[in-house]
Amino acid sequence: MDNTFLAQITNGTIENVEIRRDGSFVLVSSAECPGCGRGQQTIRLNVGNNTAILDENNNRIPITDLRTGMTVNAAFSNAMTRSIPPQSLAYVIQVVGRPGGDNVTVGRIVNVDRRNRSFTTVSDGNFASTMRFNLADDAQIFNAFGRPMDFSNLVPGLRVRVRHAAFMTMSIPPQTTAFEVRVIR
Q1: Contact 129/106 with Cβ under 8 angstroms?
Q2: Domain membership flag for residue 121
Q3: Of 57, 77, 97, which residue constitutes the final position of a domain?
Q4: Do residues 78 and 5 touch, judged by C-beta distance below 8 A?
Q5: Buried b (16+ CB within 10 A) or exposed e, 76-95
Q6: N or C: which end of the chain has fewer CB within 10 A?
């Protein structure tokens, strides 16, 4: 698709994410920006209410899930400022890679073990995808609005996005350490 109003970045790296009341932005550097007229470049992508921010599975995520070092693909307006770095309105930002060996799993909580600070999820109703997550001591838990919440508020039936370690035990169900839990709708 040849669109003269659209520019793209492929495999860009997030350098900074700033979230403010008067506007948010993501600073991305990339060597692959066809149609931008430059080689290696950094661009400030202004994020608005209509910007689609997606994870690796094409699920919408809030801007608060974006982290420095993530690899992203982005589509943005070809109309850029002449500032350094140039700025443009972002249409789509999709995460394609994460730093540090963390993984993300989306599933519905089916069991909560309050004594051991753990919970079990099933993804897409497929019981073969059952996983048990043991919360790290410094794990963060957020409600659907991105506000912190207590472990005691996690209950069976909630749909959650869990950022967790890349390793898993060979047990049934497999277990791993959860670093962040976010309730999603």
Answers
A1: no
A2: yes
A3: 97
A4: yes
A5: beeebeeeebebbebbbbbb
A6: N
Task: Give 69-101 as a DSSP string.
Answer: T-EEEEEEES---SSSS-EEEEEEEEEEE-GGG
Would you say residue 1 has pLDDT above 50? no
Residues 46 and 20 both lie in one domain: yes
Whether 83 and 105 map to the same domain: the answer is no
Shared domain check, 73 and 32: yes
Q: Per-residue pLDDT tens for 57-100?
A: 888 888 888 888 888 999 999 888 888 889 999 999 999 887 76
Beta bridge partners of 53: 93
**Closest by Cα among 64, 13, 3, 5 to 43:** 13
Q: Classify residue 1: in a domain, yes or no.
A: no
Domain containing residue 170: 101-184
**Distance between CA atoms of residues 145 and 47, nearest Å:** 18
Position 164 in a domain: yes
pLDDT at 28 over 60: yes
Instruction: Phi first, then psi: give them for residue 64, nearest 5 degrees.
Output: -65, -15
Of 163, 100, 99, 98, which Cα lies nearest the Cα of 136?
163
Q: How far is CA 150 from the centre of its chain?
A: 21
Model pLDDT, residue 2? 54
Q: Which of 39, 74, 97 is the last residue of a domain?
A: 97
